[in-house]
């Protein structure tokens, strides 16, 4: 018997619906970010890598390779103006020809010097109008690309008490976003992200899930909260936030990454894989379809395509573990008030080596049993470096 056969036999013996778990794994869709394939760094410097993509088309090529290896990364999220092109339809056709679809469209309201004091919260109405114009432009870009979501992260905030009126900033933001939301076509949803701090260090205008949820409630039913795993204070129970938002039908999606200290944007599951598992336990336990799952990482020193492959594989593993949780035993332990029995149910699933199950799901999709090993053995990194040139 193969490792896959041994595992599935054990799982069936525990009452796990293996066929349902494999079907769920096979239908998993993860969006990889175009920006995750390019050069990145810290405020101290950017570290160029040989073979890094020079255009959005090459970033799409890298995303297509991740999908080929993993089988479940069939969408690429785009960022504008970083991914701006002269012909948006040409980009849409290129993405489709690569076997991908467009994920969320991400407007950029944090790099233009005009936004130093904020974008849609800025005291200057001309600057607010400029930001609003970009948000409306991204709606039209998404329409051409066939995207079904706008993903908004505002870097707006203040660095010092007294710098600006906090309530007035919120009202300016709501005023602009209400007009933008009204222009949203029926097929698009609005994802509102939050972040505790950085680049603002005194008061971020969308600092937590509560402030983001209040904005969504003001905008309408197609506005939902986007949860970035690194955008909370230390020790925050992210899976509880997930469960509340999901139960209110306001969980729009994720930016998956991992962190040790703040918004570190490390490989998904690299520091705290148990947290990732618990998030998926809440998603599976809700009984709802999975929300939008997007990776948002900054690969500063690691090989970018390989890092993205690792993240997708780690998401697959966490999802698989959540799928094999004995829900009946979990409910029974809860009903009996048996604290440790319920905890043990989760540990049993978490400590199960689900790699053969995930490999089998990838194999059924025509992807690689071991995507990282397959990438390394392919020599693609060396070929791409030769084709695209040395970054130095």
Textual characterization of the structure:
The protein has about 400 residues and is α/β, with parallel strands linked by helices. The chain has 15 helices and twelve strands. The strands form four sheets. Strands 6-8-10-11-12 form a five-stranded parallel beta sheet. Strand 11, helix 9 and strand 12 form a beta-alpha-beta unit. Helix 1 crosses helix 13, helix 2 packs antiparallel against helix 10 and helix 10 runs antiparallel to helix 14. The longest helix has 21 residues. It is globular, with a radius of gyration of 21 Å. The model has no long low-confidence stretch (mean pLDDT about 95).
The profile of the biggest β sheet is: 5 strands, parallel
> Which band does the percent of strand residues land in?
5-15%
Assign the structural class, choosing from mainly alpha, mainly beta, alpha/beta, alpha+beta, or little secondary structure: alpha/beta
What is the average of the pLDDT values? Answer: 96
> What is the global morphology?
globular
Short description:
The chain is of the alpha/beta class. It has helices at 3-13, 18-26, 56-70, 88-97, 125-145, 166-182, 209-219, 238-247, 273-285, 304-323, 327-336, 339-350, 355-364, 371-378, 380-388; strands at 31-33, 41-42, 45-46, 75-80, 101-107, 149-152, 157-158, 189-193, 203-204, 223-228, 251-256, 292-295. Strands 6-8-10-11-12 form a five-stranded parallel sheet.
Blueprint of the fold:
Elements lengths: L2 H11 L4 H9 L4 E3 L7 E2 L2 E2 L9 H15 L4 E6 L7 H10 L3 E7 L17 H21 L3 E4 L4 E2 L7 H17 L6 E5 L9 E2 L4 H11 L3 E6 L9 H10 L3 E6 L16 H13 L6 E4 L8 H20 L3 H10 L2 H12 L4 H10 L6 H8 L1 H9 L4
Parallel strand pairs: 1-4, 4-5, 6-8, 8-10, 10-11, 11-12
Antiparallel strand pairs: 2-3, 7-9
Helix pairs in contact: 1-13, 2-10, 2-13, 3-10, 5-6, 8-9, 9-10, 10-14, 11-12
């Amino acid at each position: 018997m193969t490792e896959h056969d041994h595992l599935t036999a054990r799982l069936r013996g525990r009452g796990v619906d293996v066929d349902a778990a494999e079907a769920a794994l096979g239908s998993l869709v993860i969006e990889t970010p175009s920006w995750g394939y390019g050069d990145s760094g810290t405020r101290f410097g950017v570290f160029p890598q040989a073979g890094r993509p020079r255009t959005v088309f090459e970033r799409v090529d890298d995303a297509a390779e991740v999908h080929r290896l993993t089988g479940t990364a069939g969408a690429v999220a785009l960022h504008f103006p970083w991914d701006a092109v002269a012909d948006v339809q040409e980009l849409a056709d290129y993405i489709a020809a690569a076997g991908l679809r467009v994920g969320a469209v991400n407007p950029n309201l944090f790099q233009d010097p005009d936004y130093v004091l904020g974008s849609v919260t800025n005291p200057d109405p001309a600057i607010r109008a400029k930001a609003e114009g970009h948000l409306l432009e991204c709606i039209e870009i998404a329409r051409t690309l066939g995207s079904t979501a706008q993903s908004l992260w505002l870097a707006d905030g203040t660095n010092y008490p007294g710098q600006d009126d906090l309530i007035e900033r919120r009202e300016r933001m709501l005023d602009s976003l209400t007009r933008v939301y009204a222009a949203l076509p029926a097929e698009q949803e609005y994802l509102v992200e939050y972040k505790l701090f950085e680049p603002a260090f005194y008061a971020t205008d969308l600092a937590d899930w509560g402030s983001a949820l209040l904005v969504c409630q003001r905008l309408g039913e197609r506005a939902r909260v986007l949860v970035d795993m690194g955008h909370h204070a230390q020790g925050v129970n992210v899976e509880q936030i997930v469960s509340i938002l999901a139960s209110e039908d306001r969980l729009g999606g994720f930016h998956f990454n991992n962190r040790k200290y703040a918004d570190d944007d490390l490989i998904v599951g690299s520091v705290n894989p148990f947290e990732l598992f618990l998030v998926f336990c809440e998603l599976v336990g809700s009984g709802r379809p999975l929300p939008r799952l997007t990776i948002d990482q900054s690969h500063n020193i690691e090989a970018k395509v390989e890092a993205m492959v690792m993240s997708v594989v780690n998401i697959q593993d966490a999802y698989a573990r959540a799928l094999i949780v004995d829900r009946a035993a979990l409910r029974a332990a809860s009903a009996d008030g048996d604290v440790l029995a319920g905890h043990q149910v989760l540990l049993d699933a978490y400590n199960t080596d689900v790699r053969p199950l995930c490999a089998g799901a990838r194999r059924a999709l025509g992807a690689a049993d071991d995507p990282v090993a397959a990438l390394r053995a392919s020599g693609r990194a060396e070929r791409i470096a030769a084709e695209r040139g040395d970054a130095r």
